[in-house]
TrEMBL record:
UniProt feature, compositional bias: Basic and acidic residues: 37-46, 333-343
Protein name: Ribosomal protein L1
Matching Pfam families: Ribosomal_L1
Lineage: superkingdom: Eukaryota
Chain intervals for the UniProt region annotation (Disordered): 36-62, 323-363, 375-399
InterPro entries documented for this protein: Ribosomal_uL1-like (IPR023674), Ribosomal_uL1/biogenesis (IPR028364), Ribosomal_uL1_3-a/b-sand (IPR016095)
Species of origin: Penicillium cosmopolitanum
Length: 399
């Protein structure tokens, strides 16, 4: 029986894994209440009282955090290593994170930038959207004008959202530097290139076709209506920036959202991540948490299984067979080792016999020499005793 505190839901039909909507709403409500209470406490303890929504003061201690970001923390079981998945992307959400009428947008395009400026100034381009795009800059001018850290920091502070042509999005990391990529204003990719079609189908480029010289290359852009539609769709999305790791944070809302709005955005982001960005989808997801900028993470989904493929799991019967197989292999290896030792001992026996025979022959020779030496000593003593006696008799006979 599943308890009420279980954070994993499985269904018999459709996807075997899915979010528990009541649990997501419950966690979202608790998080929003905590953020609101923290803001009220900070406002009460502030030495300088400010009105809610007044963020012009530079004093962080006296400024209430009225629009704190809310993040979804997704943890995978295996690292994301696919280069196509690691490219910056976006996921459409039902409740936009960029709904402010005073939003300032900066568009970074492939060269030439004049083409994009003409598109935005075109009468077919929506006036409401063009009024929010305050700056358009080409990639070459971006590199030339914003080389210093101070100039990049000033550019970052001047605009709320940065959109970049997807053809140059990967080249901006070294151009913009850590001042951009350590913030929440990383450029979001937009597809504004002109797509050649024939009979309603996209024409694929021939890889064998010779590319024009670098100075002759000119980026082709889509029509004003297509560019405007792409920018509007991007502003209605949340950016996704994955790293070759097991954890990714995606912004899903702010403290101004309701619990239902936050829950709907979370569901949209989770579906987008499982379908496009996370290999193996739900099977590769380990945990889902929601948190504020300065709060602890609240769990909304936890996996019961820590493996991705069922083939990685050994069943009890197979485990017993595997253990018996290992034991038999171990016994066999021990028997083989003993056989090898026996063969080695048999091979070493002739050498030991030779040593014993040589030692015996040496001892026999020594014993024989000792006997000969003793015999020689006995013979010498006998000769010495007999010789003086013969001399005395001779002297008597001469006298």
């Amino acid at each position: 029986m599943v308890s009420s505190t279980t954070l994993t839901s499985k269904v018999t039909s459709g996807s075997p894994y899915q979010l528990d909507t009541p649990q997501v709403v419950k966690a979202s409500s608790a998080l929003l209440r905590h953020i609101k209470s923290s803001q009220e406490e900070k406002e009460k303890s502030a030495t300088k009282k400010t009105l809610i929504g007044d963020n012009d003061s530079d004093d962080d201690e006296s400024t209430p955090l009225t629009n704190e970001a809310v993040w979804l923390i997704l943890t995978t079981k295996k690292h994301v290593v696919d280069k196509n998945r690691l490219k910056p992307g976006k996921i459409s959400v039902p409740h936009s994170l960029n709904s402010s009428p005073s939003l300032s947008v900066c568009v970074i395009t492939a060269d030439p930038q004049r083409s994009v400026k003409d598109i935005i100034a075109d009468s077919a381009f929506p006036a409401e959207l063009s009024s929010r795009i305050e700056k358009v800059i080409g990639f070459s001018k971006l590199k030339a004008r914003y080389q210093s850290f101070e100039s990049r920091r000033q550019l970052l502070s001047e605009h709320d959202v940065f959109l970049a042509d997807d053809r140059i999005i990967t080249r901006l990391v070294t151009t913009l530097g850590k001042i951009f990529y350590k913030s929440s204003k990383r450029p979001i990719p937009i597809r504004i290139a002109k797509i050649e079609k024939e009979d309603g189908k996209r024409i694929k480029k021939d890889p064998k076709q010779k590319k024009p010289a670098k100075e002759d290359r000119v980026a082709a852009f889509a029509s004003p209506l297509i560019v405007a539609k792409e920018i509007e769709r991007t502003l209605q999305s949340t950016p996704v920036h994955l790293a070759p790791a097991t954890t990714v944070a995606v912004r899903v809302g702010s403290s101004k959202f309701t619990a239902d709005q936050l829950s709907e955005n979370i569901a949209a982001v989770v579906n987008g991540m499982t379908e496009k960005f996370v290999a193996k989808g739900w099977r590769n997801i380990k945990a889902l948490h929601v948190k504020g900028a300065n709060t602890t993470a609240l769990p909304i989904w936890l996996a019961n299984e820590l493996w991705v493929e069922d083939a990685d799991v050994v069943e009890p019967e197979n485990l017993a067979i595997e253990e018996s197989t290992k034991a038999s292999k171990k016994r066999k290896s021990i028997g083989e080792e003993k056989q090898v030792e026996g063969k080695k001992s048999k091979k070493s026996k002739p050498a030991e016999d030779d040593d014993e025979e040589e030692a015996a022959s040496v001892a026999a020779r020594k014993e024989k020499l000792a006997k000969l030496k003793a015999q020689a000593l006995e013979d010498g003593e006998t000769v010495k005793v007999q010789a003086p006696a013969a001399g005395k008799k001779k002297r008597k006979s001469t006298s």
